[in-house]
Hints:
alpha/beta; Protein-Tyrosine Phosphatase, Chain A
Amino acid sequence: MPRLSYRQSLAWLFNTQRFGIKLGLENIQRLLSALDLPAHDERIIHVAGTNGKGSTCALIDSICRSAGYRTGLFTSPHLVTFRERVQVNGEMISEKEVAAGLTKIRALLRDWNPHPTFFEIVTALALDHFLNREVEIVVLETGMGGRLDATNAIQPAVSVLTPIDFDHQKWLGDTLTKITFEKAGIIKPGVPVVSASQLPEAETVIRSRAMECGAPLDFVKEPIERLPIGLPGTHQQENAALALSALHTAGVEIGEEAIANGLSNVVWPARFQRWDERITIDGAHNPSGARVLARTWRETFGNQQAAVLLALLQDKDAAAICAALGPIAYRWFLPAIQSERALKPEELRIIIQDRLPDASLAVFPSFGAALTEAREDTAPILITGSLHFAGEALAALRGEPTAFEECLQ
């Protein structure tokens, strides 16, 4: 089978999305076994939860790199380029490595039925890249849920749970108990667990699962307040405490200087990212994330309200997100975005008007048009509502192709 180019390999990979989301571990276990993955000498830190997963993974990775460990970081979704999902020592996988890895995997899967899904293939690509680059510590973020997520086919040194709340109800269930059951499915027999503070209903499920598995469990309740953190918001102090507890539990030795450097130098785009003096970008995409965003906005800007550029996907609780952001919104700018799953801005306008009848709002054909209009005023600008939208905004601000356009090239 001929070697694929980077563009061809992405085209093949994204075409596998037609297989949809299939929760289950049989295919990924078969795929990892065929590739002899993961490497046997890697320490894996497995992270699940609703909000804060990516930030916690980035903090763990940054601290480990500061201590001299060779790290592999696997996260999702990507913002601007697919390559963001797979990083070694803070360096994105190259286009050449993506093409080589996907060419190998495509040849292996030629006659498989059922065919692995997009996320199963990307998980295998990441673990194969980490093996080739001889990483020591792998930080693995779940894609969705946990129990039947492709990343759950591995055996970690520690299982980590960030705060759990409502999201992906179509797949994970319509109650917090059901959602937590899926997230807590990453807990494995005898593998220690560290968890952020949880809502009582979620904590009960986590305790039950850990007891059932004989897994030592620790809830991290004290934030890190003594050291500066490169990510804004008091919630990042809680994520930092969880990251340090995860490393300690996994037996990773880190000195105080490395901890301080790792926390202060961490970079994680679209998490209350200050693009310039006026523009802030945050990929809050569910009600709990929007509440945290509103709190962080007040911590940063006090009572000053924002010109809110908002775009959401169809499967999100738009009414609850808008209600959470309402108190910090001076005016709403609703652009159309490059996603087939996007909620139409005209529909979003109706939702906002139903919840906030006095809201000042306008619909725009693109992000660029909305930003141009928002800049006419003097209010600080907040770009939020979806990581897909945050990525599109970042690409436009950088003058780069969007993630959507990368797949089409």
